[in-house]
Design goal:
Elements: H1 9-16, H2 19-46, H3 53-72, H4 77-101, E1 103-105, E2 108-114, E3 117-119, H5 121-142, H6 148-165, H7 169-185, H8 190-210, H9 212-223, H10 229-241, H11 265-297, H12 302-326, H13 344-360, H14 365-379
Antiparallel strand pairs: 1-2, 2-3
Helix pairs in contact: 2-3, 2-11, 3-13, 4-5, 4-6, 5-6, 5-7, 5-12, 5-13, 6-7, 7-8, 7-12, 8-9, 10-11, 11-12, 12-13
């Protein structure tokens, strides 16, 4: 156990970190590894690989991802901003390169192959984008003559343009939704909310009429016609799981779900562990978001408030989209369940997000002083 009396960096980190947040992130990673044993062997066998190929890789991905999360949690808010700035610049450059030398999978060009590793730059762009936009909003609120809001709109336009070019409408909707929520919390005028909302609706209609694969997915969702094998099979797995599941390793329908270890791992969890387990999983994500927003609402610093809110909403909205697709409440979209689905880029990028959250929610001397001052003002005790 680390002593409270010690003054080293590790001891200071241990006693100032939000240990409940840390525990939730590690718990989700553990659940992801457990579900990888259930979901990935059938996929590996279909591809002619050793049964536990993806399980082993999942475990290998966890080690550097966990190191990234813990390492970033040591940063100060200023260091978080600087790290996010570098990460955003590098990821945007890589997203441009993806359009020319990227690996094409299922009609999308979203990955770069570097030194034998396949990287999805847009995954790393998301947390950096949220942090930098939070900083721009906060700077505009602090000094209105700084056009932070305008710069954030331009940054959103660049990110959206690169995502649509891949094309990746799901990630586009994700970052646009989170950006809009942050802008609202930063004090966006209602007229601008209506205008931007209208632009978003027009963008969806534009994607429907100009991108055939988007139109196909929406049509299949609305009519049920066409190739709906994966979502239909996922629904069957959920129904078969009933309340308490078939038991670990007893799933049958999961074996024929093509992306059971990535986009449809929630359905595997439902078949083997039941609806009750899935409800608990949803509750964990909901608690994660609510705890983050609770932290944010207690912040006096605009940057910390907006950044923490945006980062937890990024995790919450992404999990909502993934689960909504599994339940056939949303059109099919290739989006992972944070910290649970298989994928090196996704897991590492989510751990970057988690590391930023842990860094920004640490109890620092100035925050403790604010809390003591607030307590004295409420209790009537004179401030020192």
């Amino acid at each position: 156990m680390v002593s409270r009396v010690e003054r080293g960096p590790v001891a200071d980190w241990f006693w100032t970190i939000d240990r409940l947040f840390l525990g939730i992130f590690i718990l989700l990673m553990g659940i992801g590894l457990m579900l990888s044993f259930a979901a990935s062997p059938a996929v590996a066998e279909r591809l002619g690989l050793e049964s536990f190929h993806f399980v082993k890789r999942h475990g290998v991905f966890m080690l550097p991802a966990l190191s990234v999360m813990v390492g970033l949690s040591f940063l100060s808010p200023r260091q978080v901003r600087r790290t996010a700035m570098v990460l955003l610049a590098v990821s945007l450059i890589m997203m441009v390169l993806v359009l020319f030398i990227g690996v094409e999978v299922k009609g999308g060009r979203r990955w770069l192959s570097l030194a034998g590793l396949t990287i999805q730059p847009s995954e790393f762009m998301k947390p950096a984008f949220v942090v930098i936009c939070a900083w721009l909003f906060a700077e505009h609120a602090r000094q209105p003559e700084i056009p932070g809001n305008l710069f954030s709109v331009l940054l959103l336009g660049i990110a959206v343009a690169l995502l649509i070019a891949q094309p990746d409408l799901g990630q586009t909707i994700l970052i646009s939704t989170v950006w809009g929520a942050m802008f609202f919390m930063a004090g966006m005028p209602w007229l601008l909310i209506v205008v931007l909302g209208g632009v978003g609706v027009l963008g969806v209609f534009g994607a429907y009429y100009t991108l055939p694969h988007v139109a196909g997915r929406i049509d299949r969702f609305l009519t049920g016609e066409g190739d709906t094998f994966q979502v239909d099979t996922a629904r069957e797995a959920i129904i078969r799981g009933d309340w308490f599941g078939q038991g670990p390793g007893e799933g049958i329908v999961k074996r024929i779900i093509p992306d059971s270890h990535t986009d449809f791992i929630f359905s595997v969890a439902a078949e083997e562990f039941g609806i009750v387990f899935c409800m608990a999983l949803v509750a964990i994500f909901a608690f994660l978001v609510l705890r983050g927003l609770s932290h944010a609402f207690g912040e006096r610093n605009d940057f910390n408030r907006l950044a923490v809110s945006g980062l937890v909403l990024l995790l919450g909205v992404q999990s909502l989209i993934n689960i909504g697709v599994n339940l056939e409440l949303l059109p099919a979209k290739g989006m992972t369940l944070p910290l649970i689905s298989y994928g090196g880029s996704s897991m590492t990028a989510i751990c970057v997000t988690a590391g930023f959250i842990l860094a920004l929610t640490r109890r620092r001397p100035e925050k403790r002083a604010q809390e003591r001052g607030l307590f004295r003002s409420v209790s009537g005790v004179p401030a020192e």
